[in-house]
Amino acid sequence: xxxxxxxxxxxxxxxxxxxxxxxxxxxxxxxxxxxxxxxxxxxxxxxxxxxxxxxxxxxxxxxxxxxxxxxxxxxxxxxxxxxxxxxxxxxxxxxxxxxxxxxxxxxxxxxxxxxxxxxxx
Length: 121
Prior knowledge:
This protein has helices at residues 32-45, 48-59, 67-70, 77-89, 108-117; strands at residues 64-66, 94-98, 101-105. The chain is mainly alpha-helical. Strands 1-3-2 form a three-stranded antiparallel beta sheet. A hairpin with a 2-residue loop joins strand 2 and strand 3 (101-105). It is elongated, with a radius of gyration of 15 Å. The chain starts with 31 loop residues before the first helix and ends with a helix. Mean pLDDT is 81; it is low at 1-19.
């Protein structure tokens, strides 16, 4: 059996906890499930507004941002909410409601997994 190392999984602490998906592309072919999960992540980032929102959250101090701080991306608030929902569904963001505001976070393991996914070994 080949020496296969999958990326570490994040133990779900909350219902919307993020679980990174797959081994680096150069290690072995993806299973059908891994390919589906990875495609959802990249599809979500394929939209310029979503990529801007993801970048805004990831680059925000502490890796967490209130929706009130990142919603200036040139679309209406309902559209921002839609895009943030799509990023959450793809496993790229987690969120937490605090009072009237929702705070979004990019889990460090997701960024690490995405970086390792494209690493050539």
